[in-house]
Amino acid sequence: xxxxxxxxxxxxxxxxxxxxxxxxxxxxxxxxxxxxxxxxxxxxxxxxxxxxxxxxxxxxxxxxxxxxxxxxxxxxxxxxxxxxxxxxxxxxxxxxxxxxxxxxxxxxxxxxxxxxxxxxxxxxxxxxxxxxxxxxxxxxxxxxxxxxxxxxxxxxxxxxxxxxxxxxxxxxxxxxxxxxxxxxxxxxxxxxxxx
Length: 195
Description:
By secondary structure, this protein is an alpha/beta fold. It has one domain (2-33, 42-60, 93-194): Rossmann fold (3-Layer(aba) Sandwich). It has helices at 13-21, 66-76, 94-100, 111-122, 126-146, 154-159, 161-172, 178-185, 191-194; strands at 2-8, 26-30, 45-52, 103-108, 150-153.
């Protein structure tokens, strides 16, 4: 089984990928630049985490030569600030990923929290964070129309990890692993929701 873990940037995709990747039979790659990845030795399932809103297009491979896009991004922005990447660098499209993956899990988070987190954690201006959220929402809605998916709410994953992980495992057809629960508890940004 191949799994796509996705959501708008700063919505909890890394936490969700960490939780799912904690399962002993699943390997998750974070933001690979191409789909030329192989399952980790001894793992039954593989997956990848892709954030929406900046580095990927919906239908077309924007740049099959991602290194050229990356070089242009560096010329445009020599200081490599995350929020000033003007060209997508992924060598694949969402359409390719949806056709390839057996399961799609989308994590969602409150708009104000996503934008606030983007500004706080990356220093990007409000207008850039808002634009990324809008683009990511459009990509997320595009995925929802084209695939069966499981929706996970960030706040629920942080507040009620056991119930959410049981739902995720039911969707994937796997048993819950203690390592998944442990990874959910390691989220430093969710402490304000739980505590």
